[in-house]
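(Fold this chain)
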Amino acid sequence: MAAIVAGLLVASGAGAIDVNVVGLFPNKAVVQIDGGALQTLAVGQKSREGVALIMVERDGATFEFEGKRMRLGLGQARMKSSAAAASAMITADERGHFVALGAINDIAIRFAVDTGATFVSLPSNEARRLGLDYRKGKPALMQTANGVAPAYRIKLDTVRVGDVTVNGVDAIVMEGDSTPVALLGMSFLNRMDIRREGEIMTLTKRY
């Protein structure tokens, strides 16, 4: 038997989308989106408006729209999500490397995206250009392709790429030329949902 439930108002970067769940069946839901015709969605299926049905339970269903998930239970009032999460789109260069223009403490910098790097890593000349007093940081020794190199662990006030800004980011400053470019490592990336489609990488802030 179908279960009649309330509606769901999902905010997006382009405005809002109104999802009304009319009925629930095993692994399926009947929905009306933005006042249009009724649609039956199976779990894993996405509507033409981009609303995906993720899961159906006895008393509700979970939907995903533009990377955000919301669950609507029986008898719930209409809900409104928060604004769409901040995101950044990065394009691969001719060598297949993902390079992003961003900023550290509001000063522009060019990053190479490196999911294998634990921290955001900066060469010492870039740290000086950014005005970072990195030698007050915690001394460390880092293994590089050229051997062990001295480094300093610091915390950056802000790191920004596209519309995404993260506060309080752990970073490493490498002395010498062991790191020729700034690396956007996991101390920034682990706060993102990362999606890659061919030569496009999209970072969406999770928290």
